[in-house]
Design goal:
Elements lengths: L5 E4 L11 H10 L4 E5 H10 L4 H14 L3 E6 L11 H18 L3 E5 L10 H16 L6 E5 L10 H11 L4 E6 H8 L13 H15 L5 E6 L22 H8 E2 L13 H11 L5 E4 L2 E2 L9 H19 L7
Parallel strand pairs: 1-2, 1-9, 2-3, 3-4, 4-5, 5-6, 6-7, 7-9
Antiparallel strand pairs: 8-10
Length: 332
């Protein structure tokens, strides 16, 4: 595990527009993380603030990252691409713009979450064809940008790593692989917002089965990078009377937006067995790539929230995960 490099998602250091991307990069470096996932909205806000184009903003951010010895891991999240009802040509034009930004940032990946619009096309042939077009666009110029496909636990067609792996195999492109996030694994199979216990009745067995299958079937070279986050227990259980409830919105999506602390932040309600997933995804597979923390803590939406507080929490969370999994996870 000594070779795993550590990153943070830029929104994991603050979600208010005043929480500037340049400050987040400085904090990433200060607290010992060597990579950052640049969230498109953060880059757009930075560029607008300086009255420059987003391409020029990306160039400035790359210079700032270099000055702070921080690598850009990914540009994220390129949402609702495959199976959308809009013309494919329009979506590919947008993708080309994102890829141009990623190349300026020297980001090896554009992160693509699985489609989650309820009215999306679910024909697997369509999905595979469109993802192939996207991957081919990523490899059409140099440097090649890889597509890190992330299954969402509320995805319309793809909501498990099993389905995501099937799509990766069908797309069959060297620059198309998996972005794995503990939140999606655990909210799909283990954590329930509706149960008093916080768990589905068969949670532990289902998770064990999933992890055993994962170890047996996922090719190491198709794990592009891994993201870590926890989930806050609902107390009382989630219902239509809950203040976060939005009619028609997937409960897992609601959960993700409001209650995703850093791993093992029990003081903020975190209760999921993140270390068990890490042991399989990282230790048992021998994965030596990037590990990033991606959290969405509702406290971070406030202007008063201090991004440095998040950076301190991220570093402490990493130490807790290290202790829980046993062997050291990368550099401190």
């Amino acid at each position: 595990m000594q070779s795993n490099k550590q990153a943070l998602g830029s929104l994991s250091l603050g979600q208010h527009p005043s929480h500037s991307l340049d400050h987040k990069i400085q904090l990433t470096s200060k607290y010992g993380f060597t990579g950052i996932e640049v969230v498109f909205s953060d880059l757009q806000t930075y560029s607008d603030k300086h009255n420059i184009s987003i391409l020029d903003g990306a160039a400035r951010i790359k210079q700032l990252c270099d000055a702070n010895n921080v690598e850009v891991l990914a540009l994220a999240p390129f949402e609702n691409f495959e199976g959308a009802r809009s013309p494919l040509s329009t979506r590919l034009a947008t993708a080309k713009h994102w890829l141009a930004i990623a190349r300026i940032l020297k980001a090896p990946y554009v992160q693509v979450p699985s489609q989650f619009n309820p009215d999306a096309i679910t024909d697997e042939n369509v999905i595979v064809h469109e993802l192939q077009q996207l991957a081919d666009l990523g490899s059409a110029e140099t440097p090649v940008v890889a597509i890190a496909y992330e299954y969402l636990s509320w995805g319309t067609y793809c909501s498990t790593w099993d389905t995501a792996l099937r799509l990766v195999q069908l797309v069959n492109r060297p620059n198309f692989g998996l972005c794995l996030d503990t939140f999606h694994e655990l909210t799909k199979l283990w954590g329930s917002p509706f149960e008093t216990s916080g768990k589905y009745p068969s949670a532990d067995q289902d998770l064990r089965d999933s992890l055993q299958r994962f170890k047996a079937t996922v090719p190491l070279e198709k794990i592009f990078y891994v993201q870590l986050s926890d989930g806050e227990r609902f107390d009382p259980p989630f219902s239509a009377s809950h203040p976060w409830y939005v009619e028609g919105e997937a409960p897992e999506f609601t959960w993700s937006k409001h209650g995703r602390p850093f791993p093992l932040e029990t003081s903020l309600g975190g209760y999921m067995p993140v270390p068990e997933v890490v042991k399989t995804w990282v230790l048992k597979t021998g994965f030596q790539g990037w590990i990033s923390m991606e959290v969405f803590d509702r406290q971070m939406r406030s202007r008063e929230f201090e991004p440095e507080t998040a950076a301190i929490r991220a570093r402490e969370s990493w130490r807790k995960v290290q202790a829980a999994v046993g062997p050291p996870m990368g550099r401190l």
